[in-house]
Design brief:
CATH topology: Rossmann fold
Helix content: 25-40%
CATH class: Alpha Beta
Strand order of the largest sheet: 4-5-3-6-2-7-8
Order of helices and strands: EHHEHEHHHEEHHEHEHEEH
Number of strands: 9
Distance between the termini: 17 Å
Number of helices: 11
Oligomer: single chain
Shape: globular
Structural class: alpha/beta
Number of domains: 1
CATH superfamily: P-loop containing nucleotide triphosphate hydrolases
Strand content: 15-25%
Length: about 250
């Protein structure tokens, strides 16, 4: 039996990456009309959904404290489900709060969120930064209420110019003002420097560790690299965990 997501407190025992964070965020709301999309059908096992809901609660909906508002999700090295984990975290967060939520595709090397949500990649982050386009003109406001998508956009081949641009920080600051929560999907830490840069402008990073693929030492070095770049590692998700014992017994441990 497999489980797509281990929430933070269980993963802490596996890779020792958990670190809490508290930071205030602006709560401005956008009034743009929602986009009606044709999203591909996605089936999520009930037990997986339960764990992913817990992930959102333990990162963003902490009682009695101010949770992080802008969080980067990225794999350590190779985790095919990283985009889906980030996307469903945004959906679950939007379902559990009335506050505005935005998810950003910051993986310009392999953008995926536009496909997940069933929209075109004809506008997005690259347009907002490289063309100084209004953020509100670049996002897709998804049907169903308070969730918006800023896809990668069509100019991903110009990514080096994006990371060198001061406009990127301005765009991220604008997103903080327009949305209570911002989730960013970034490329793997050990393959690109993009995750570290995005982590510096966010409140921290959630690392996605692929069970039976990511080596413990690789995960440790990824955490150390982020820490050296002054990026807070908020926790880790263990993807595709195989239970060596029956799941109903595991849940009682």
């Amino acid at each position: 039996m497999s489980q797509n997501c281990e929430v933070l407190l269980r993963t802490e025992r596996e890779v020792h990456l958990f670190e809490p964070l508290s930071i205030p965020v602006d709560t401005s709301v956008s009034n743009r009309a929602p986009l009606h999309i044709n999203r591909p059908a996605i089936h999520i096992d009930a037990s997986v959904h339960e764990e992913e809901v817990k992930l959102v609660q333990r990162v963003f909906l902490l009682p009695g404290s101010q949770a992080p508002g802008m969080v980067v999700f990225c794999a350590v090295d190779h985790a095919p489900g990283a985009a889906g984990i980030c996307a469903r975290a945004a959906e679950n967060l939007a379902a559990q709060t009335t506050a505005p939520v935005c998810i950003i595709d910051g993986n310009l090397h392999s953008p995926a969120l536009h496909s997940y949500f069933g929209v075109e990649n004809d506008r997005g982050l690259t347009n907002a930064v490289l063309e100084s386009r209004s953020v509100r003109d670049s996002v897709y406001y998804l049907a169903g209420g308070n969730l918006a998508l800023l896809s990668a956009g069509p100019r991903c081949d110009e990514s080096p110019a994006l990371w060198k641009s001061d406009q990127l920080r301005l765009v991220m600051d604008r997103l903080r003002k327009d949305f209570r929560y911002v989730l960013v999907y970034a490329p793997p830490v050990v393959l690109q420097v993009d995750a570290a840069f995005l982590g510096q402008v966010a409140d921290g990073v959630i690392l996605i560790v692929e069970a039976n693929v990511t080596r413990r030492e690789t995960a440790r070095k990824a955490k150390e690299a982020l820490t050296a770049a002054n990026v807070k590692v908020l926790g880790a998700v263990l993807n595709n965990r195989t239970f060596p014992i029956p799941e109903f017994l595991y849940k009682k441990l």
